[in-house]
Automatic annotation (TrEMBL):
UniProt xrefs under PANTHER family: PKSB (PTHR24322), RETINOL DEHYDROGENASE 10 (PTHR24322:SF736)
Record flagged with keyword Oxidoreductase: yes
Key word Heme present: no
Name the UniProt record assigns to this protein: Dehydrogenase
Keywords, in A-Z order: Oxidoreductase
Length: 265
């Protein structure tokens, strides 16, 4: 996909990977609606990027919020060509409550489903469009200390795979981004948490490999969209871990138990 001149929506764009993606997309010639639940943060992301960026306060997990962002893009720039489902939450430590599960699934999974539902009719009619799912290495491996995050990210990867299989022959591209540690407020929040389970979850991320900048992840993601590639592994070692998991699942689980014991001291 030639990104120059395209129209994109980025959710969770008020900080972290979403903010970096907005900046990189504008830099390569796209016009972008930066959406975030925090309207001020969305506006801050768009400020300084010129006329090709607009900040919009919207809940990416709700059908109404998605329509708000799509309408804002259409009014400012035209129909959306690229949708980046980036907004995400870590969820509760441990198993969590019913309410915790509802929230993490709404943001990390159903937001993607609702966005695809809103976009696919128009994209099929035009024969083009690109959906970007910012998932996590947790969607290929797991997340120590956070069941909701691990499960919802597995589901996000599964949904992205389904989209790519179901609509790839109709001109619709799908890219799934699965980083480990990225220097974002989400990681900072659990690293500084008073909850020991949350801190173990953070340690499992920061000790597994290099903590990358959000800018680096954004650059690799935009490159994959341009090349119409599905999987983005900003940490190449994740591919080796995933292959080891597939080769011997029991051994991998035993290794993860040992790793968890080490983290808990």
């Amino acid at each position: 996909m030639d990104i120059e001149g395209r129209v994109a929506v980025v959710t969770g764009a008020g900080s972290g990977i979403g903010r970096a993606l907005t900046q990189v997309l504008v830099a390569v010639g796209a016009s972008v609606v930066a959406g975030d639940l925090d309207a001020d943060a969305a506006a801050q992301t768009a400020s300084g990027l010129g006329a090709r960026a607009v900040g919009v306060g919207a809940d990416a997990a709700s059908a109404a919020g998605i329509v708000t962002m799509l309408d804002a893009a259409r009014d400012a720039f035209g129909p959306v060509d690229i949708y980046v489902a980036n907004a995400g939450v870590i969820g509760a430590p441990g198993l969590g409550s019913e309410g915790d599960w509802d929230r993490v699934l709404e943001v990390n999974l159903r937001a993607h489903i609702r966005a695809a539902d809103a976009l696919l009719p128009g994209w099929q009619q035009r024969g083009s469009g690109h959906f970007v799912s910012v998932a996590s290495a947790a969607g290929l491996l797991t997340q120590v200390g956070a069941a909701g995050y691990a499960v919802s990210k597995h589901a996000a990867v599964g949904f992205a795979e389904w989209l790519a299989i179901s609509y790839g022959d109709k001109g619709i591209g799908v890219t799934c981004v699965c980083p480990m540690g990225v220097d974002t407020p989400l990681l900072s929040d659990i690293r500084d948490s008073a909850d020991p389970v949350a801190r173990v979850a953070a340690d499992s991320i920061t000790t597994a490999g290099e903590v990358l900048s959000a800018q680096r992840v954004a650059e690799l993601t935009v490159e994959a969209v341009r090349e119409d590639r599905f999987m983005v592994l900003p940490h190449p070692g994740v591919g080796d871990m995933f292959a080891g998991k597939a080769a011997d699942h029991d051994r991998w689980i035993a290794g993860m138990r040992r790793y968890q014991r080490t983290l808990r001291g």
